[in-house]
## 1
Amino acid sequence: MNSVASTAAATTPSHAKATAIFTCILAALAGLMFGLDIGVISGATDFIKADFAISDRTIEWIVSSMMIGAAAGALGAGWLSSSLGRKRSLVLGAILFVIGSVLCGVATNPETLIVARVILGLAIGIASFTAPLYLAEVAPERIRGAMISLYQLMITIGILVAFLSDLAFSYTGSWRWMLGIIAVPGALFLLGVLWLPDSPRWLMMKGRTKEAEDVLLKLRGNRGMVDHEMADIAESLQTPQRGWHLFQENSNFRRSVGLGVLLQVMQQLTGMNVMMYYAPRIFGTLGYDHESQLWFTAIVGLTNVLATFIAIGLVDRIGRKPILYAGFVVMTISLAIVGTMIHIGTTTRAEQYFTVGTLLVFIIGFAMSAGPLIWTLCSEVQPLKGRDFGIGVSTFTNWAMNWVVGNTFLTLVNGIGPGQTFWLYAAFNAVFIVLTFWLVPETKGVTLEDIERKLMHGKKLRDIGA
Ligand code: BGC
């Protein structure tokens, strides 16, 4: 950040700071929907299967239709959030979320359930694209990293709440309540987003400068800072191309889009979602009974939430790259150990606890690093004129890879073996240490406009930040 902005930031009045933070918290609630959706299905599948008397294949379709919807939603969200605006896209996402979850709860056959999950997927595809974008555009630069991490915190809280609610409803086997109850937080989110201001950047893109100024004054409360930020936005708006055209014409933009794709491939291939979708089964492999499996799964959810605080505390202080290195190292080592333990077999109590503990260390490794930081980086590295497109492509990649991971784990376990599957993911994480060094920029304390300038001037990707 340059000296004008940092001086101004230091004098932001507390009521403006509070408004900005409240706005960010509300938008970050989109993450809660995301998490509820990821977490809710793992506990429901056994009951759905028994109720509808369907095969594992149909179950796979019910599970994965959500990710297909989300991938499609993420693609369309680029266009939506640029034409309708970020706020109205979030409203649309919230409405679809409520419709999808109610429909899941009342579905009378697997086909309806699949359609309902696609609608839910569309909702979080839109929300998972729009919320980080909105957050990056309204958060004061000094706390931008932490605010986007807040979004990840909401995802993890959503997952935890879903695990706990699954656990509670599992005693009566009420899968309809498991899936339907999430309409309630969805409706509250809808009320919240109706209150949000439009993103100042989007308003300026639409030529609504006066409104942008009003919003910024509310969020920053400091004339000097508002002028500075508006001048920065105006400058980056001068690039005349957009989205797909920019992608075709500008090789620098293609590099940032490629970086976003790579970052999301990295996030998913850490193997985190193997735990999110199959944790009970993995605990089963270690020798635990059904009830312990679900309790350990809840502990996984809680660990995921708590460790996200590490990222929130550190991201704007020590930066993105050191945390990513630490996370990938922790994940490589812990997965290698888990793979080895499973390979040699966990027979004693001590071995079982040790392996569960190591899996929790893996969760910590992800939650303190790649979980929040990949979303942060993806929203920071795209130039404004192509930001919708760039983040759309990376969010699409997130869901497409999520689908791949969710749909190959059991096949891998049956094909190459469970221990080897964990080693494979350990190897991926080791590769990501190198890729982080080679390609990932340090964006801590750099304005979005600075990042854009350096990218467009052809600097190496890892040098477009600090
Ligand atoms: C990822 C999700 C994952 C979640 C776990 C998110 O950042 O995108 O795929 O399930 O973290 O907390």
## 2
Amino acid sequence: MKIFLVAGARPNFMKIAPIIRRMESWNAGASAGEKLLWRLVHTGQHYDYAMSMSFFEDLMIPAPDYFLDAGSGSHAVQTAKIMTSFEKVCLDENPDMVLVVGDVNSTLACSITAKKLNIRVAHVEAGLRSRDMSMPEEINRMVTDAISDLLFVTEKSAIKNLRREGHREEAIVFVGNVMIDTLFFQLEKLKKGDQVQGMGYEVKGKDKDGGDGYAVVTLHRPSNVDDKETLFGIIEALIRISEDMPVIFPAHPRTKKTIEAFGLMGRINASGIEMLPPLPYMLFLQLWKDASLVLTDSGGLQEETTALGVPCFTIRENTERPVTIDEGTNILVGTTKQGILSEYEAFRSGASKKGRVPELWDGKAAERIVDLLIR
Ligand code: UD1
């Protein structure tokens, strides 16, 4: 069976890595006829070293077989560029299946392209719903799921969502979370003292036993960083928190651009916020795993903090990953200064949320996916 594995943006790389590892370990013991013929397609949605290549190095992902070089652009332009290039590759190679992960524009573009060529589509991380159609990812998730043949889900809420949308029961498979496979795998490497690429930054002396600890922030959602008033409020809240403990903020390129455009850099530089470029996976893991508090609008980090029991404030009004709230350490704090700070005051007075690791987030999701594909 020939399978295309698609990855395009930063959060895709963590999800594809364990699937490739599992396919390779199967292939090592399989006869020629049983081998899974996989090809990695990198759409090029993310292209900066820090957003793409550094992840290939840290996560030991082999060089892609195809690089589509889509780059940035409006949603239509980016999606169209990926579709046009991906169609050529599909026509040349005629795969039996296209496997897409997550909810980025590359996920949508490649699933539509494949399906229109009558190629089967498998979606890893299917069924998550924020019910917020102003989020580009919600549209990507809904469209991809609507046309996928196999729907691999990370949490039970997703099963309910897919059933409600009328998907066939046989198509829905609860496998756990490939992002957490990567987290556990890389954590082991960190424990064994694997070299961490530094990009000029070193995590030093910020152990949480040594005082008030530190907070780690990531922000990149257009609704948070492209709107001046919202971004001002969030930064004001972070500045307040930085009066109590260092706030370390590796900033997405989009976020850095808007912070500069809105003239906020001076306020940040004068505060206890330490702004950094986006960090490679291992360096970032080393940083956030020991943080006293993570504040984020990322999807993946909500899950990762839950898996390691790190308190997490999600700077959004909703989440498509409710298990992180119901069972994990995640709290939705909204996007206003008041909302963030009122939860922060509760946190400071000791009301931190204890969580548990959700079902099947055990480091074996890729194993379940690949075993099912083989069967
Ligand atoms: C994308 C995903 C989002 C995911 C995020 C993770 C979509 C709709 N959004 O958002 O779900 O959480 O990736 O990072 O697919 N840029 C660079 N260098 C890069 C990539 C982007 O400078 O390597 C800048 C460009 O100015 C670009 C902007 O970031 O226009 C946005 O990039 P884009 O890929 O459109 O979306 P993200 O905001 O990264």
## 3
Amino acid sequence: MCGIIGYVGEKDCVSILLNGLKRLEYRGYDSSGIAVLNKEDNRNEISMVKRVGNLKKLEKALSKKEMKGSLGIGHTRWATHGKPHRLNAHPHLDCKNEILLVHNGIIENWGPLKNELISRGHKFISETDTEVLVHLVEDYYNGDLVKAVRKALSKVEGSYAIVVMSKKSPNQLVGARQDSPLVVGLGNGENYLASDIPAVLEHTNKFLIIEQGEIANITKDKVEIYDRNEKLVNKSPFETNWDISSAEKEGYEDFMLKEIMEQSIAVRETYRSHVYKYKISLDESNLPIDIIKNIKKIFIVACGTSLHAGYVVKGVVERFARIPVDVEIASEFRYKDPIIPNPSLVIAISQSGETIDTIAAIREAKRKNAWILTISNVMESSAVRESDGAVYTFAGPEIGVAASKTHTAQIMICYLLSLYLAKVRGEITSAETAYYLNILKEVPSKIKSVLDNHSKIKELANIYYKFPDFIFIGRKYGFPAVMEGALKLKEISYIHAEAYPAGEMKHGPIALVGENCPVVAIADDSSVYNKILGNISEVKARNAPVVALTTIGNEKIKNLVDHVIEVPKIPEEFSAIINVVPLQLFAYEIAKKLGCNVDQPRNLAKTVTVE
Ligand code: F6R
């Protein structure tokens, strides 16, 4: 996730772009850049500044540089393809240094396109997927920037919001959008393009939304928007009454809710950046094929929510790749003198990549000669730097302390990694891989349908918020999701909650159950459905109120339990990524009902860099 902005007008726009980027910094902050075109005395001069690090670095660099221009674009980056580096920062330039482009999204077919463009003589300077776009526009530019952008975009697959400017069209910006947001801000004698409303809210409250597949051609006093069929679209602007702080949350009450709602996008971007034409690419992992083929054991090291993703890895890697997996609490790992057979793969999962316990576990595993792979949401994080390879989730920055979208993105990576290992080890065929990838491709829309059910989950929370204790139960693939559901509830609502494998209840925890201790059970379509029904009957017999998470269409279970949360059907191996979402919403709504600060729960920090 990145933030993009563009300005066309008569003012000197450097500070307008910089301030806009500051409002977009929540979308990414590993590098940034601004380019402007100075048209004074017809000199048509481009100046550009890029810096690695947060926007303070860019601001400092700009303060030292004479830079003027009334046409400009800016970008704040969350690295996806290519590490945070000045050459990978946007804007990107064509070979003649005339066309400039900023991009938010992922171009899936950038590899073949890059090879093709290189064979036609284009020179690339970055490792990004984005750079292909600007070279394509260069190829098609024939005096009409809109046409060139349209043609370039017809070649790409993936997601994008872009803003393009050219020295040769000094009074014009072109924007386009597919699966990444883009708005037009309407000013007086000036216009803006931006990833979202807050970026330009201090200059205007009138906006147009660019819809899927549309292209916007913008000058200081004209906005034209074309649909996919090159037809002009007539749009009426709307006025927003947002203030700046609510706008950063895009209208949501908290970052956590916004991030929960962003999950279908986070999961889709994570899938898209690793899958192209039914092939899983984990190139950045550097995982040697001979290691994959000979691994004796996999260890997962992680903490908290990331540890729960580890339990998902265990389920799917053992199922598909048939490699034994141990899930290890990172803070314990280094103290137990772990026995690590050779060759072993240690997978560290950490959204921040800065959790000290996980880093210490990585060091311990390294000392014992394991091959270390980190799954992280942050490129160049400490965990990534200390590992032999890394695979990234593309969830964008997460601001709420309690993890949500980074977790479902981690689960998507777990699925892809397990299929990749299985394929390399010959446990599944290409056809089977394609079959499973087709299922995973549908996950974002299934998550969206769960999110669309938000109001029903809120109604349930309004009933259940009064209980002091909860027990969450699940079996097999259902267990990691209930562990996460219980953690979410306790950390943001301060209600005591425990998760148990349902069959374990009778060995002790069932003593807690009664009318004051509700049970949340995962009872979706699965090979253990009848078993869990038995476990639900056991707690019902002890008067526990029961909420069952069940597959849409299961009417029968409604006679057994008090309330149901319906989830779309998916093969059981991949159910965790769906089932965890309503549990996040359930915890969120209970916490809100209790008046808790969900973005900053007491005693917790987003990144735990102390032991
Ligand atoms: C809970 C939560 C924490 C983190 C844990 C590890 O909502 O966010 O449990 O999952 O502190 O953090 P990372 O993944 O950054 O290593």
## 4
Amino acid sequence: MAIVPFDDRDGWIWYDGRLVPWREAKTHVLTHGLHYASSIFEGQRLYGGRVYRLAEHTERLFESARIMGMKIPYTEEEINHACNEVAKAQGLDNAYMRPVVFRGSEMMSVAAPNSKIHVAIAVWPWPSYFSPEEKRKGIRLTVSEWRRPAPDTAPTKAKAAGLYMICTISKHAAEDQGFADALMYDYRGFVAEATGANVFFVKDGALHTPIPDCFLDGITRKSIIALARARQIPVFERHIEPAEMAGFSECFLTGTAAEVTPVSQVGPYHFSPGQLTEAMTEDYAKDVRATVMIDAT
Ligand code: PMP
């Protein structure tokens, strides 16, 4: 399949308050966000023409910006409106949407308090993060050599571009070795998350998932916990030692892009995607559509 570069597509991108032709949504090479990672973003999906949990994503966008000391020059309502506007302009009902906020070119040094804060929102079709074939069998993960940093080492609560350095390195290394992704441990050695998704395990009919105290508390993660509890499935949020993986029967990833993705292997540990992974996949698929119906009435 030919790769269509992201800067050479048709349509519109919302950029600093207005829709601009896709190819004209540019920024200069001397941009603070590019040099010093003063950039935060969101990833959200449209299902049936509505952004699933848009308010939560926009709230997290503003919280990430606040943590980074960046004042977004719009209100949350304006950003929500802009998200819907760009989806409509692009004529997409089922798609992935990426709001990004970054410091501009006014100042080029570590401190850049007077830089303009830019906001862009793009949307494009992205059916599945992992291939349907990979998803059916369960994806294979290796273990990353990189660890999620401590909360006093990096702004771990922000969805900040800088935190993805180790994710890209880890995922490249995993793919080079024939794995779909990498599982990352945290600075203490506990199981943390994959490079762009949270992780759940199954043991004796219950779900176990790490406490998000040094990595992103995914919006999908929170949906899955609520959906599981609605089914009376016990959910334990706790620190998980890597060796415990030997005793887990199922494993799956959750994320806006990954949705619910079964995992068949993490390094030396093997899992069989089963009943609970299937139940959560189905419940999540219903939930993303149900939100549409509730919103539409
Ligand atoms: N962790 C990381 C590092 C991510 O990039 C993502 C995707 N945003 C997640 C977890 C899952 O978050 P969410 O469910 O909000 O998409």
